[in-house]
Request: fold
Amino acid sequence: MALFSWDKSYSVNINSIDAQHKKLIDLINNLHDSMRQGKGKEVLGSIFNELASYTIYHFNHEEELFAKYDYAERNRHKAEHEKLIVQINELKNNYNKGSNVLTMEVMNFLKMWLSDHIMGSDRKYSSFLNQKGVN
Reply:
């Protein structure tokens, strides 16, 4: 059973970003499923590393659009991105050191952060970028 399911309410009406959000949701679900199935550290570590890398890729894509179209809230939004990157890297480093950090608490944190970020901060740039012709 998926921890997090995509539905149209998460759409920001920008195809590239919606596709990236779906990929992030898939990665969180893969990590959750692997954790629940008791997969080994190597499998979990690989998925967790992919999630961390893809998150940075996604944030860079958003930030490039913000810079290109001079989005007024870009610094605040980027600060949110930077905070999550620090948190994910901390979790990843602790996991790689052998700390058992992949718990339901961590999974729910990732789910809630992404959900809240899409529904809150990302919604704020949606209409701005749509008006600039980004769909």
